[in-house]
Amino acid sequence: MSDWDHTTDFLVVGSGAGMVGALRARALGKDVLVVEKSDLLGGSTCMSGGVLWLPNNPLMQREGVSDSIDDALRYFETVVGDAGPASSQARRLAYINAGIDMVGFLESEGLRFRRCEGYSDYYAGVRGCAGGSARGRSIEPEIFDKKKLGAWCDRIRPGFAGSMVIYTVEAAPMSLMRTRIGMATMARVGRRTVGGRMRGQKLAANGAALIARLVGALLRREVPIWSGSALTDLVVDDGRVVGAVIHRDGRAVRVRARDGILLAAGGFARNEVMRKEHSDGLPIGADWTSANPGDTGEVIRIAAGLGAATDLLDEAWWMPSWIMPDGTPGMCLSERCKPGSIIVDARGLRYFNEACSYQEAGQRMYARHRENGAAIPSWLIIDSRHRARYPFGMAPAGWTPKQLLSSGVLKRGDTLEDLARQCDIPADTLRATIDRFNTFAETGIDADFHRGEGDHERFYGDRTHQPNPSLGPIEKGPFYAAALYPGDIGTSGGLLCDQFSRVLNSDGSPISGLYATGNCTASVMGRKYLGAGASIAASAVFGYAAANHACADPGR
Fold first, then answer.
1. Where are the beta strands (DSSP E) in 341-427?
2. SS3 of 11, please?
């Protein structure tokens, strides 16, 4: 074929963490092009904590934090188990080994990271799980001044923390606002935020910092980035994907990719039709997601049209959420891990460990709803001590905005019976559930669901509360309740890939020239989320692996 409008060696579709693949390919001497359908760069990565979960990473090694590949594989095995081809042993090994190499490469390209000390793996210390790290395997990007990007400064999608310049690992201690550690963390974040403004900087943290640093490295390498440019088709010649059709500036642009194409354009969290197609009739839609607006699944559809195999399309990175007055979801994380909180279904019954990982919490909600049809929504119930001591969403401890109450996002009752009436929950059942829960709080041992035993549960609890940092009685009125839905931060099922990130067809053989990473693929972690930054890390690692493979031998 000769009717190409543009030719490159390696084409990357999407501008999230998968851009690591673009940077790697360029460092290996290849011509690279990045295309992004939105006018803003970063996708859902920008809206995330920007954390990367990477076992035995170089930062751990330098700081003497004990870890090993064997421990990481044991952790995969005991938590994930047999999750099909997406989580094969080969893919797990590739994730761990390529992740170690990738961090060294990114540091050589000028990216800077810090360890998230104490941000434990999500199943460390949990019964039946082995190989987890209580100190944590997560790293996050150092804060970055976007002004260094020049004209690209304002083309980075805004981060989740708004105007606050906060490291992700600081969020948990900052939620203890009335403790010494909470006040010290708040003061540090405040100084950093205000100081940056006074110096005229545009500081980015979290996912926005990771994307800004990646964009800076790509610009130094003179890699072109086309924003406002959407993939509409893949071009196949003699069984090999050789190019793509990109809709740009109102016309179809045919791009030849000599060595390969990497799909890194996210999942389908915002695609109502696709979500319902794979929901097995359970309540779902595009209204409960916190994924970026462009997370609409076209690349999965296009690749599937070429015969690409898919898996785990019913799965997502679940995040229990309430719905704010403006209709947007508010993510519920630390609130359900703090003492003085409980989650019940519409029948007033507790049914899972409220402080478990967010993905598992969403799965538990759906499993319960399959069981009794009464878990969507469920109800987060807290007492006045919880409201006085800990934040609720963006509302600080001790202050409840009137709009939360007047809109019904947060219901308030002087007694549990009054609250039950407002939530249409059987009052006697709710009272019995909470009475039983309170006996656990007294001893610090949750005999029903083992809340507070895992290291991650204690990390998000209140370390000043004893005997269990995550378990406290619900007994002091007034009482509050918020309806919880199985929201998410993106889907986690999609194209099946091998350890080199090659997209596989239905017979398990690779589609020549086509690679994929991130939320458009079936997760290497199957139906689990192993630690903070697991999804972002997988997107970056398998982008890195794709570039290594494509650039080593474009004929394969």
1. 341-344, 378-382, 411-413
2. strand
pLDDT top residue among 190 and 449 = 449
Pairing type for strands 411-413 and 310-311 reads: unpaired
Query: Which residues have CB under 8 Å from 259's CB, separation 6+?
Result: 9, 10, 25, 30, 513, 550, 551, 554
Any residues with CB less than 8 A from the CB of 64 and at least 6 apart, and which? none
Task: Provide the pLDDT for residue 556.
Answer: 46
Q: Is 323 helix (H, G, I), strand (E, B) or coil?
A: strand
Residue labelled with tokens 């403790």 = 179
User: How many Å apart are CA 43 and CA 28, to the nearest integer?
Assistant: 25
Distance CA 316, CA 18 (A): 18
The length of the chain in residues reads 556
Q: What is the mean pLDDT of residues 456-478?
A: 95
pLDDT attached to residue 227: 96
Taking a C-beta distance cutoff of 8 angstroms, is the pair 528, 81 a contact? Answer: no
Tokens (6 digits) for 200: 């005229």
Calpha distance 337→130 (Å, rounded):
22
Between CA 421 and CA 400 the distance in angstroms is 21
Asked if residue 501 lies in contact with residue 517, where contact means CB atoms within 8 angstroms, the answer is yes
Q: pLDDT (tens digit, 9 = 90+) per residue, 104-125?
A: 999 999 999 999 999 999 999 9
Tell me which amino acid residue 74 is: R
At 35 the pLDDT is 98
Helix (H) or strand (E) holding 63: none
Angle between helices 416-423 and 427-443 (to 10 degrees): 130
Token pair of 176 as six digits = 């203890």
Whole-number Cα distances in Å, 416 to 1, 350, 375, 404: 72, 15, 19, 19
Count of other CB atoms within 10 angstroms of residue 47 = 23
- The answer to whether 359 touches 529, Cβ cutoff 8 Å, is yes
Q: Count other Cβ atoms within 10 Å, centred on residue 344.
A: 26
Q: What is the pLDDT of residue 163?
A: 79
Q: Which residue has tokens 């540091």? A: 107
Phi/psi of residue 107, nearest 5 degrees: -65, -35
Question: Helix, strand or coil for residue 236?
Answer: strand
Number of H helices, E strands in the chain: 17, 21
Select from 59, 58, 171 the least CA-distant residue to 115: 59
Element (H, E) at 423: helix 416-423
- 452, 531, 410, 449: which is closest to 136 by C-alpha? 531
Please enumerate in sequence order all residues whose Cβ is within 8 A of that of 326, keeping only pairs 6 or more positions apart, or say none. Answer: none
**Which tens digits make up the pLDDT trace of 221-241?**
999 999 999 999 999 999 999
Reported as a single tens digit per residue, the pLDDT across 49-78 is 999 999 999 999 999 999 999 999 999 999
Beta-strand relationship, 494-495 and 329-331: unpaired
Q: How confident is the model at residue 280 (pLDDT cuts 50, 70, 90)?
A: confident
* Residue linked to tokens 């609130």: 335
For 386, the token pair is 């919880």
Angstrom distance (rounded) from CA 380 to CA 396: 17
